[in-house]
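hiii, so i know i said id send this last week but things got crazy w the move. better late than never?? heres the sequnce for the chain we talked about at the cafe, plus the structure i predicted for it. fair warning i was half asleep when i ran it
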Amino acid sequence: MNKHVQAWILIVAMTAFFTGPSRAAEDVSLLKDMTSVIALLGLPCGQVVSAIKKGDNDHIATCQDGNRYRVFLNPEGRVVAQKQ
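okay and structure toks below
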């Protein structure tokens, strides 16, 4: 294979790799959403520092004050946060 063709293949592959969606941006957005949900439900938290996805619309959120909540949709479609 020609060296120029190999170089172009490498450039295309690297471009595709680095221009994919940013998980870090999604994570920051999810943490802000979890913080808002927990605050709107009137539960103590401060700020969510990590969230682990357990399933569709089901997360375990850990707050800066040490509280942990399972945030999910109940069968009626309402958002619920249960202390863990």
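btw Residues 22-83 form one domain. thought thatd interest u
miss u guys!!
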